[in-house]
Amino acid sequence: MAVEVGALLSGKVTGMIDYGAFVDIGEGKNGMVHISEVANSYVTNIREHLAVGQEIRVKVLNISPEGKISLSIKKAVDAPPPAPADARPAPPRAPKPRSAAPNVWQGQRGGADPQGFEDMMSRFKQTSEDKISTLRRGGDTRYGGANSRRGGRK
Q: Lesser CB count within 10 Å: N end or C end of the chain?
């Protein structure tokens, strides 16, 4: 049979490398099966799927102008049968409905605590003012103040 793109041929594995296998397809011609064309599943080690001297069926994918022949084992075999209807994944679920209540802080559980909230906000305000005044004085070296390595006032 003539070696042409799309032809199904029988061959014999003559050598293997990490990324593929060399196959003698007859008529004094050799081709290579890339590791990605060995099986329908992901192949990490080609030697787990093929062995030197093994007879295989291949399909010619491409013939380069230099005469290099690209082969595929997975395209030479029939496509796997479709999965039964009960094995198909379930359709995606509808998104959860959003609640009508706004996301508002309610204080501590068990009742409103306006005094606790006021105390928390007061402490936050004082801490923020302290940080800002430190930055304005240029005393904090982390933010490019006068004492930082990057510069500042000289």
A: C
Q: Write the CATH number for 18.
A: 2.40.50.140
Contact by Cβ (8 Å): 42, 74: no
In whole angstroms, give the CA distance from residue 66 to residue 68: 6
**Residue pointed to by tokens 């430190």:** 134
Please state the domain count of the chain.
2
Does 30 map to a domain?
A: yes
CA atoms within 13 A on the CB side of 54: 15
pLDDT digits 0-9 by tens, 38-92? 888 888 999 998 999 999 999 999 999 998 999 999 988 865 555 565 566 666 7
